[in-house]
Amino acid sequence: MSKSVIQMEVNGRSVSLEVEPDEMLVDVLRERMGLTGTKVGCREGECGVCSVILNGKLVPSCLIPAMKADGGKILTVEGLEKDGELHPLQKEFLNKAAIQCGFCTPGMLLSAKALLDENPEPTLNEIKIGISGVLCRCTGYRKIIQAIESAAKSVRS
Amino acid sequence: MKGEKRKVILKEKKVEIPLAKEELEVVGKQVIRKDGYEKVTGRLKFGADFDKAGFLHGKVLRSPHAHALIKKVDVEKAKALPGVVAILTAEDVPGRNGFGAIIPDQPVICGEKVRFIGDGVALVAAESEEAAIEALKLIDVEYEPLSAVFSPVEAMKPGAPKVHENGNLLTTVRIRKGDTEKGFQEAEVIVEQTYSLPFVEHAYMEPDVAMAIPHEDGTITVKGPMQAPFTVRRNIAPVLHIPISKVQCVQTHLGGGFGGKEDSSIDIGVRAALLAWKTKRPVRMEYEREEVTLSTAKRHPMIIQCKVGAKRDGTLTALEGTIYNEQGAYASLGPIIPPAGGTHAHAVIMLPGPYVIPHVKVDGYLVYTNHPYGGAMRGFGAPQVNFVHESIIDELAEALQMNPYDLRMKNCFELGSVTATGQVLDQSIALKETMRSAADQFEWFKRWRPPPSKEEVEKVEKRRGVGMAIGWYRTSIGTFSDGCGANVYVHEDGSVILHTGITEMGQGSHTVLAQIAAEELGVRIEDVRIVVPDTDIVPEAGPTVGSRSTTLMGNAIIMASQAVKASILEAASEILGVPAERLVARNRLIFDRDDQTRGVEFKEAARRALATGKRMMGQGWWAPPRPSFDVETGQGYPYFVYTYNTQMAEVEVDTKTGHVEVIKVVACFDIGRAINPILVEGQIEGGIMMGLGYAMMEEVLLKEGKVQNLNFQDYMIPTAMDAPEIVPMILEDPNRYGPFGAKGIGEMPNIPTAPAIINAVANAVGVRIRDLPAHSEKVFHAMRGRRG
Fold it and tell me: Which residues numbered 425-484 in B keep a CB inside 8 Å of some CB on A?
C-alpha cells in the first residue's frame, strides 16, 4: 500500500493530509496537526489516554490507522472549549479536583463526553462503565465520577 | 484555639503562625489547582509534547540475558546504516560509567557484564526513530551467560552467583530494643508467620522522556519529567566529566511519578545527555511502555518472617522480624543514606508498626539479585512491612479472640509513646483519634463479627466482611541532607514569583506551596506564580519524595516570604506612619491591626519598596531537626514527625470463585493541617486505589529474570470498575515544625489499604492471604484448601 490523501473534520475544522498506511491517528493528530492534548501511554489501546471521539464514538486513537479516519469527524480535547467557554465537563473537573497529573484527563474528558452524549442521565455504574477504558493512576476515580455526575446535571439544566 | 499563636523555631528564626483556621485567607481553602486550566484544555505540555524538530532520536540496546559477560560488541554494521549518527559503547563514556540515586552502581553502558534483562549495552543516536530502531538490530553483541540468582534468600547463600563484585548482601539494618527472649517468655500467646510481597510497577501514565541540548559554551540542558531534577543533575555531571554548574536540568510536568521518576529520570536523562554530548547535537529519548516496565525501578519485593507475643489481655510483649528485601540488579534507592535514608532502613524502622512493644528485634537484609531493581514507590518500604504488622496483629487478635480494633487500641502509639527505635513521640500524634473517628463513620462495632466457620462460608454464595489497618508514615527522608531552599520575589505591581525546586507531578504541590506563600505575604493565590523547576534558577530543594514537600519546602517559603515582606511592611509603615510591627498583610491589603481603617494596598507598598531601594527578594532555607539512627541497634530519632492513619474496608467475597469486591473504604488521617483539603482528599483517594491494586491484582511477573507482563494488557491496575466508595476523613493535630502545622500526606494513604482489605477477606471467608496479590484464583484455592 502507498500513501493516500485523507479528509477529516477535526474539532470543526476540515483538514486534508497525505498519510502513510501505517500511520496511526494519534500520530497524525499529535505530530502533523500539533494537537498534543491527545496523549500516548501504551500504544496498545489499553490505557485509553489517547481516546478521541470519532464519528460520535470513543476510540483509542493509537489503534486507528489514519486512513480509517478518512471522511470522519473527530473531537479531541482541544475542541471541547467553545468560544473561550469551557465545556461543563471541563468546569466540573476543575471544581471537583478531578485532575491530578493531568495525563489521562483528555482521554477521561472525552470518554465522559461520549457517555453523556449517548446517555445524559447515567447512573453511578453507567459512569464507571463509561470511563473504565481510560486508566488513571492518580485520582482513584472518585472525584472524576463526581465531576461527571455534576456535569451531567448542568448539561441537563 | 481561635486567635492563639505559637512560636515556632524555624532554624534560627522565630515565626508566629496563627493556629486558628478562621484567621487564614488562603491556607485551608479548597483553591482550584493552578495548573488545572491548562490540564483540562490539553494546553499543558508534557515532555513528549515538545517539538521534536532538530532532535536526534536516542535508543538503548538492552540485554536479553539476566547475567552474562560481554565478550564483544560489534557496532560497525550499525554505524554504516544511513541516518545513524552515533553508536556508543562503554568506552565512549567520558567520565564515571555509572549512575544511581544513592550509589552509582548502574552502568550508563555496560562494559564487562550485564546484571538484568534490560540492562543497557549500547546507545544509538540517529536522524530518525526508524533508523535508530534499525541500528539496534545491527549491533552484534557476544555474551557469555553466567548463572543467575533470582531470590534474595538464594542470593545470600554461600556460593551464590555474585551480582556485584563485593557480594550480594548490600546492607544490613537491625533493631535491638530490650530482650525479645524475655519478651516471648512473658507472652501467653505467640503468633509466627511468613509473608511475601511482589514487585509492583508504578504504572505512571506518562512514559519516560528526556531531551538533551548541548550548548557551545560547554554547558548542557536536559529537560524531562524529573521527580528530582537535582539528583539527575548530580548524576549527569560526573558521567560527562564536567562540573555540576555546567549541567542544567529543567523539569517538565510529570504525568505521574509515585517515586518511579526519581530513578527513571536519572536513567534516561544521563543517557540522553551522553548522546547529546558525544554527537554535539540535541537528542531526544523516549521509553515505550514496555521499556519502562522492563528496565525502570519497581517497589521492592520482600519476604518477611514475623513473630509477635502478647499477654492474654492483649498487651504486646515482643516482636521479632527478619526482612529479606530484594534489591535486584542495582542499588537505586535501597541502601542507607546516613543516618536513616533509603528504602531499606525505612522498612526496618517501620516493621514494628505504630505500637508500643517493650522488646523488639529486627534483622533486615538488602540483597542484590539478577532481577530488575527495587526503588522508591509511594510508601518507600512501608507498604510491605505495614502489610506484615497489620496482618499479624489481626492473626494475634484471632488467637486472643479479641476484636482487632481493641487489640490495636490497647497497644498503639499515643502522645508520649516510645517507638522501637527509642524515639519519644512528643507532639502531633492523633492516631487513636483517627481510629475512633473511622470506627464511628464505618460503624465498626456494629459491623464487625468474628470470622466465620467453614460451614458458615459454604452456606452462601457471597459473604461480606470487614477489616481494618492502621499505620504511620514519616515526613522527611531521614538524611542529613534534607534541607531545601526557596526564593520569593515581589514586584512593584504586587505580583509574586516563587522559586522552588519541588516538582509538580499531579499531587498539587505547586498549588499548595503557592497558597503558603500567598498566605504569608498577604496576597491572593493568583498573585503567586511558581516558575518551572530549573536547576540553573531555583535553589537546591532535595528530591520531591518522602512526603516532605509541603512541610519542608513550606517552611522555607514562609522564611523567604517573611524576608521580603519585611521590605513591603517597612514601605507601608512609611506611607501610613504606623510602626511596621503593628501592620498586618492580608488579601492584598496592609493595615494597622489597632485601627483597621488605616491601610494601604499591597501593590502600593511594593511600588514604594522598590522605589526606595528596599530588598525585593527573600530567601529561605529549612532543614528538619537533625536525624539520628544507628544501623546496628536501630536506635535513634530517624524522622522528626509522622502522619497517622486508620483505614477500614468492607469486602464481598464470592465463595464459589474467590472474586473479591471492595465495597467501601473509610480512611481517617492526622495530617497536622490540610493546606488544601480537596487536594488532600485527592491524595487519599488515589493512594487507597493504588493500595487496592497492591492488595488485589498487581504483580510484575518474572520468569528466569524476564518480565512477563510489560504492558497494561497483562499488568493490571485498578479501573473505574474497581473503585469502591471511599470516605476520606481529615484530622488536624498541628505539627510544631510544620508550616501552619502541616505534615506530609502523599504516601500515607497508600500504606494500610492492602492489609485492611486482606483482613476483611479473612473476616469474610476465614482464609488468610499472606502473599500478595490476593487475586481470585488465590482466594479460591485458599478457600478450597480450608474445605479440603
Answer: none
